[in-house]
Amino acid sequence: MICADGEYFYDDRSEYNEVFMNPSMIFKLLAGALIFFTGTPALVVAGALRLELKNNDVWVMAGDSHTLIAKLQSPLNQDWRAASKANDPEKLAAAQTAIDEVEAQIQAAVQPVPLRFEIEKDDSGDAQPIAIIPQPVKLERGPGTFEITPETLVVADERCSNTARQLIQWLKPAMGFELELSNQAASAKPTITLVEDPKSNSPGAEGYRLIVGPERIQISAGSQAGLFYGLQTLRQLLPPGIFSSAPLKDTKWEIPCVKIEDAPRFKWRGFMMDSGHCFQSVDYIKKVIDIMSVYKLNVFHWHLTDDCTWALEIKGRPDLIDPKFRAEKVQSTGFYTQDQIREVVKYAADRHVTIVPEIDVPGHSSIALRAFPELKCPVPDGLGPDGTPQSRRSFCVGNEKTYEFLEAVFSQVADLFPGEYVHIGADEVSKKYWQDCPRCQAGIEENHLKDVQELQSYFAKRMEKFLQSKGRRMIGWEEVAQGGLSPTTTLMSWTDMKHGLLAAKNGNDVIMAPRTFVYFDRKVTICRVYSFNPAPPSLSPAEAGHILGGEAAMWGGLSGALPEKHINAAIFPRLLPLAEALWSPQDIRHYDRFLPRLEAHIPRLNFFDVNCGRVEKGRELAFWELKGAKISEVPEVVDWPVRGGLNEPGNYTIQFIHEIGGALQILKAELIQDGGVIGSDTRALDAIKNNLNPCRIPVSKTPSSSPVILRATVLMQKNGRNYSSGTILIDKR
C-alpha cells in the first residue's frame, strides 16, 4: 500500500514504517505497467493505492477503504479472453504468461522502501508554531503543507458521508467555495479522506489518527466520534479565519504536514450551564455547544430547574412555567418548549455532545412548591427576619403524591433526553420541615430509617430505581450520599474533591466538578482551571477507573438576569484549559507551553462573537480564603510563600484575582527574603480590579536560594459578606 504523508509513505497501522516517495517516483515505478494495461501514460491516482489483479483486470483501489478508483481492462486480458473463446491452448498459455509477468511487475512496484520520515520539531526553524487545544497525545511535524483549494476532493464512503458533509459545510463560509464529496478518489486531485474502521487499532473509542501530506490528508478512526474529533484538529490547523461566517479573500488555506495520534484521557468532558437561575436563548445554547465541540468537550450538563425558575416545559403541568409562580425578584421568564429541547438535543448529538438534564430535587424546588403547594410538608411556614413566611425549598418526601408528580416529570425528561444519564441534583436539601412533618416521620418509621438523612437516601434510591426502569443512570451532587449512597449512583463532587475520592474508593463512579477549580462564575484563574486533575495520583488504578472525568459549571445570578455577554466573559477562554485538562494526558501538560497556544486561539474565539475574557499571565502563587472573624475593617498583614522562589532580578507583577465574596483591598505588597524586603509596591489597589492593575514589584538584586515570602497588608471589608476568596498570581515582565 502506498499512502501520502509528507509525500508518500507506507503505513502498516502498527509499526509506522514510513516510506518517502516523490509522486514522480511513483509514476516511474508504475508507468510501465499502467501504460501496458491502459494504453495511456497519464493515469495519476492521488492518495493511497492498492493494486490487485482480479479476473485478469487490474483494480486500483484506496488502500484503507478498498474503494474502487479505476478498473483497468488490459489488451492482454482481451487476448486471453479471445484465446479462451477460440479454445486455443497455445495462445491461452502465452496470454496467461504475459499477465503473470505484468502482475509481478506491479507487485514489485508497490513494495515499501524503508526510508524514515524526518520529523521537524514543532518549535524549530521558521515554521508557524502549531497551536492545537487540547494538546494531542502524539504530534509529529513534517516538511511542507497541504493547501485546500476548490479542486480539493473530500473522499468518504457511506458510513462517513454525514461527517464529511459536516466538514464541507464548516469550510464553506470562510473559504467561499464548497468542496466536492465523492466515494472514490479522482486522478490528479488532492484529497481529504475519511476512514472509519471499527476493527482498526485506532487509539480508543474516541481516538483518531490524522496524517497530512502535500497531496493528501487522511483521518482514520474506529468510530464516527473519533473522525469528528480528527476534523476538529484539522480545523484548528487551518488559519484562524476558518471560523469566519463570511468569505475571506486572499487567504491561503494551508495546513502543515503532520502526523497525529490522539485519544482522550477521560470519557466525561463536560460543561454545565445554569438555566434554572438564568435563562439563555436556544441560539446561545447552540453557540456554546459549537465551541465545546471544537475543543472536544462532549457533555453539556443542562441545569434546567432551581428555586428561581423552571425552564423546561412539562406537558400537563403548565403552572411550572407560569411566570406568576416565579420568585418576585426574578426578571427572567423564559422556558424551553419540548420541541426546542428536541432541536437542541439533535443539534448537540450531531456534534457528538450528549446533553445531561438536571431536574434539581428534592431541594431547590421553590417554584414547583409555589405552583403545587400540596407537595409541601403540612407544617406552618417558618418566618424570616422581617416576619414574612419563608419560601419552601424541599418537597415533602413522605408524601406519595410527590413521587407521582416527580415520576410524571422524569418520564417526560427521559423521553426528551435519550442520553444514558439523568441528574437529580439532591444538593443543599433543607430538612428542617421534615423533622416536624408527620408524613416524613411516618415514612421514616415505615421504612425503618434512622433519621432525615436516611430519608433523603430513601428518596434518592427510589428515584434511581424509577430512572433505571426508564433505562437511565442517575447522577446526584455529592449530598446524594447523605444517609447512604447507592452503589449504582454516580456522584458529582462540587465543594471539593474529597467527596468524589471517597466515593471512588467505595466503588461508585464519580464526576469531579470542584468549585475552587472549575466554577467559572467565581472567575477562577486560567492557571487554576488548567491545574485541574480529576484523578490525582493518590488513587489506585482501580479507583481511578471510577473517575469518569470532570466538568466546569457556570451558575447564573439569583435574579435570573445574567446577560449572555457576561456569561461569555466568564466561560471564555476558561473552557479551553478545561478541555485540555480533561483530554490530554497529565504528563504532557505544561502551563507555560499552554499559554501561547491559548493566546493563539483568542482570534478563533472572536469569530464566534463571544466577549472573551482576559488571559491572565503568571503562575499561581497562592489561593486566599478568608472567613468570618478574619474579615473586618482593620488592616491585616498576611504572608504567602512564593512557590519555587525567585531565580533572577527583574520587574515582578502580583495579581490578586478576586473570585467571590467581600471586597479585598491591598494596601501594600512586599517580597521578603532572609528577613529583609527585596521589593515592594505601596500603592493601594482593589483586588476586584487588580487583574487589570496589578502590584508591580521591582527586584534589583539577584535573589538568594532562600525561601521568598509575599507579605501583603490587606483591608478586608464585609460588604454584606462574611468571606472573601481568590487566587494570587506572580509573573515576571
Specify the structural class. alpha/beta
Count of DSSP H/I helices: 19
Which CATH top level class of the largest domain fits?
Answer: Alpha Beta
β-strand amount: 15-25%
Question: Quick one: CATH superfamily of the largest domain?
Answer: Glycosidases
Which outline best applies?
globular
The description of the largest β-sheet is: 8 strands, parallel, barrel
Share in helix: 25-40%
Quick structural summary:
The protein is of the alpha/beta class.
List the helices and strands and how they pair.
Blueprint: H1 23-38, E1 50-54, E2 57-61, E3 68-72, H2 75-86, H3 89-109, E4 138-147, E5 153-156, H4 161-175, E6 180-182, E7 191-196, E8 208-212, E9 216-221, H5 224-237, E10 254-262, E11 268-274, H6 282-294, E12 299-303, H7 338-349, E13 354-361, H8 366-371, H9 400-416, E14 421-425, H10 432-436, H11 438-446, H12 452-469, E15 473-477, E16 490-493, H13 498-505, E17 510-512, H14 515-518, H15 526-530, H16 541-544, E18 547-554, H17 564-571, H18 575-583, H19 591-606, E19 619-627, E20 636-641, E21 650-661, E22 664-673, E23 676-681, E24 685-686, E25 695-699, E26 708-716, E27 723-732
Parallel strand pairs: 5-6, 5-7, 7-9, 11-12, 11-18, 12-13, 13-14, 14-15, 15-16, 16-17, 17-18
Antiparallel strand pairs: 1-2, 2-3, 4-10, 8-9, 8-10, 19-27, 20-26, 21-25, 21-27, 22-23, 22-24, 22-26
Helix pairs in contact: 1-3, 2-3, 6-7
What does this structure look like?
The structure is a single chain. This protein has 733 residues and is of the alpha/beta class. It has 4 domains: 23-109, no CATH class; 138-262, Chitobiase/beta-hexosaminidase domain 2-like (Chitobiase, domain 2, 2-Layer Sandwich); 268-373 and 420-428 and 470-606, TIM Barrel (Alpha-Beta Barrel), CATH 3.20.20; 619-732, Jelly Rolls. 29% of the residues lie in helices and 23% in strands. It has 19 helices and 27 strands. The strands form 5 sheets. The chain has an 8-stranded parallel barrel, surrounded by 6 helices. The protein has a 7-stranded mixed sheet with strand order 4-10-8-9-7-5-6, with helices on one face. Strand 22 and strand 23 form a beta hairpin. Helix 2 (75-86) packs antiparallel against helix 3. The longest helix is centred in the N-terminal third of the chain and has 21 residues, at 89-109. The chain is globular, with a radius of gyration of 32 Å. The protein starts with 22 loop residues before the first helix and ends with a strand. Residues 1-49, 62-69 and 106-126 have low confidence and may be disordered.
